[in-house]
Amino acid sequence: MAGPGILDLNPELLAAAAESKAWPFEEAKKIITRYAKSGLPDTVLFETGYGPSGLPHIGTFGEVARTTMVRHAFRVLTKDKVKTRLLCFSDDMDGMRKIPDNVPDKAFLEPYLHRPLTAVPNPFGGNYESFGHHNNAMLRRFLDTFGFDYEFASATDYYKSGRFDEVLLRAAERYDDIMKVMLPTLGAERQATYSPFLPISPKSGRVLYVPMKHVDAKAGTVTFDDEGTETTLAVTGGAVKMQWKPDFGMRWAALGVDFEMFGKDHQTNAPIYDRICEILGGRAPEHFVYELFLDEGGQKISKSKGNGLTIDEWLTYAPTESLGLYMYQKPRVAKKLYFDVIPRAVEEYYTFLSAYPHQDWKNRLGNPVWHMHNGNPPAIDLAVPFSLLLNLVSASNAQNKDVLWGFISRYAPGATPEKNPELDRLTGYAIRYFEDFVKPSKVYRAPDDVERDALAKLSEALAGLQSGASGEAIQTATLNVARKIERYQDHAKQSPEGGPGVSVAFFQMIYQVLIGQERGPRFGSFAALYGIAETRALIEQALAGQLAA
């Protein structure tokens, strides 16, 4: 996920990029088409938005990751002849409309409701100037961890420094045009009090949602009631900010944004943002609308609620690259974001990574790892997949890496933590994930008479194999046992020998009885890693009633 570097621009890559249907290329092509008549500018500006009303969550990171992928695709398509910038903009001048659920002391923040987030004291401790400054720092920390190339921007800084003054004065001049766009979108009660300008009260310091008594375009001021006192403020210098919908369009016009993506909850408002941008003299950027992330219960994840996974929680149990993959895949499909998705994301990342060197350029550009690593995926070959590591931890109840490496080094002679640092990293993740999520929910069940007979025959078949038998040999022996038991014969499919195939129920039974889980990886691969003698010992424990006790 690192920032721009030297690009691989060989002819085969460029030809494949021109034809690629991968979504980052599709979005990048929209930007090129945007300038088809005028020619590309010196610099193209990509922007992402962040509302620091709560601690940043993975969805916030997703915007930056996905925008970075589009930015990289654009650089390839333009042969890196156009400069690009990525601006991560924080709406930290917004008023704190409610107190987040995940702050240490909610009562501490109550007196500061409706004040700009950068004027709310920091409840988390440390040396941060405000609640908004703290949350901004948390976002930057994570983006820096991933090596993103970006510029951070604070709404408070931009308003107060005068960066928006020219367009804010234009908004005062074109106040009626903005109101014509906004009022039809509001109910009658809201129409009566609505103003695109939100003054910051000189009395209370709060962001005021009050109607304007007068807008003086020539003087660049607005007049309103502030707790019974008629007050006039300049629209410049940070004394006033804009409502969030006009603010989108104002910012695009002021900064000249070319591309911004946002969640589906903004989709119906996008035409409003665009129109206001145009009223204020700008050109609306290209958009990409992504689906929302959901928590385990199917609810939208929220910074203020703190539901769903946090950034730090994901990184406790999986490498950062797995999160990058999760962001790349199917951005227009709503996805649940909770702990159960982590193992699959890890497994799929390394699967894509192992396939990459063997692919032609067309398929490489459709491979997520090319986009995640800015065209330079690392060369990593794992001796043991993550799913197998998880099941090895589960079967062995390993509590430290040394135990796991005892199995790994026997399964893959020559593999060591020093020679295989990526695999060593994954052993730590596997142990933590097992301890926190798998172990508490493990439920072994006792085998019935048919299952006891099947397991006894499986143990006997394993005894007939050499101690170092391959996973394929173990899998074949296991299938041969299942094919001879009526319960596990699947007559809807054929075995290689021409008889009935094997039902998945057989392998489900093995994992339920031996591992205490509903599913697992290919049994032959697991037994080869765990060891034939150790697998037979598990079977003996199950038959003796020691596992389900």
Largest sheet: 5 strands, parallel
Distance between the termini: 47 Å
What is the topology, as strand order, of the major beta sheet?
A: 3-2-1-9-10
Beta-strand residue percentage: 5-15%
Rg, please?
A: 29 Å
- SS class: alpha/beta
Mean pLDDT: 91
- Can you tell me the residue ranges where pLDDT is under 50 for at least 5 consecutive residues? none
Number of helices: 24
Percent range for helical residues?
Answer: 40-55%
Strand tally is: 14
Envelope shape: elongated
A few lines on this structure:
The chain has 549 residues and is α/β, with parallel strands linked by helices. Helix content is 46%, strand content 12%.
Features:
549 residues; alpha/beta; 5-stranded parallel sheet; 3-stranded antiparallel sheet; 14 strands; 12% strand; elongated
Notes on the protein architecture:
With 549 residues, the protein is an alpha/beta fold. Helices cover 46% and strands 12% of the residues. It has 24 helices and 14 strands. It has helices at residues 11-19, 23-34, 58-77, 106-109, 131-145, 155-161, 165-173, 175-182, 188-193, 244-255, 270-279, 311-317, 320-328, 342-355, 361-364, 368-372, 386-396, 401-411, 421-438, 449-463, 471-483, 504-514, 523-530, 532-543; strands at residues 43-50, 83-90, 151-154, 197-199, 214-216, 221-226, 229-234, 240-242, 259-263, 286-290, 293-294, 335-336, 489-494, 500-502. The longest helix is centred in the first third of the chain and has 20 residues, at 58-77. The chain is elongated, with a radius of gyration of 29 Å.
